[in-house]
Amino acid sequence: MHGRVRGEIKKRFGELRLKQSVLKARVKDKIKKRIAQIKDSEWDFSREFGRKLIHLLSLFFILLYFGTAHFFGHKAGLLVLAGLLIVLLEIEYVRIELKAKLPILSYLWKHFRRRSEHQRVGGEIFFLLGAIIVFAVFDERIATVALLMTTFGDLTAALVGKYVHNIWIFEKKKKALEGALAQFLVDVFVGFIFLRTLVNGKVWWLSGFAIVGDPLWGPILIMAFAATFVETCVSKIDDNLLIPLFSGFAGHAALVFLGHIVFLV
Fold first, then answer.
1. Each residue of 111-125: pLDDT tens digit?
2. What pTM was computed for the model?
3. How many whole angstroms separate alpha carbon 118 and alpha carbon 73?
4. Hey, where are the domains in the chain?
5. Rounded-to-integer distance, Cα 99 and Cα 39, Å
6. Apex CA 194: angle with CA 193 and CA 196, to 5°?
7. Residues 244, 126: Cα–Cα separation, whole Å
């Protein structure tokens, strides 16, 4: 009788210890996740600024396309971008799948990417995909402005919204009204500079340094609104792909519509 009681007590103690160990493991896991979330939310200004500066390297993709297209044609420009995309995907394979450390790149990945980005492909992949699509489908002016809005608008929204946030639009997503307004103004400025009427059949930045042609305000405002809307409302899908696609489509549609109106008049 006593032996049975003792055995039952030991069994109960064993079950209790097992439950305690499982509970401790779950608590530790939750604490680790919470610490990671806090570190991401406390992303300091210098790192965020450095991260955005690296994103400015995406301007190289635009210059690479125009340089190649100028000498060898539109399709050659797209082909070069596609080749570069393959190279970057191979580098991401080495980083994510093989866990290999590459000189310089590993340092940049560690210090200028959020923890949530460590195990997924970087924004430059999505930006390059967007660049290939917009240059293939839309007017060159629209494609260029869409990509520049993605670069400079996103940079402005992130820095202003993160450090000057008195009015939250989506607090959980860390989207502030100040950031959205700043992005819209920067996007309008980008459009004002680069989205203009053709002069002698060419865009001004391919024919000289003087800013000539009239700004196309309809497409500019529509593109700026589309880019700001996507940046503000979307957080699960990479905006480096969405902003050029949505703003480019909206701008090109507006440009075509404006062309029809002018033709009819």
1. 556 666 667 787 888
2. 0.76
3. 37
4. 1-42, 43-264
5. 22
6. 95
7. 10
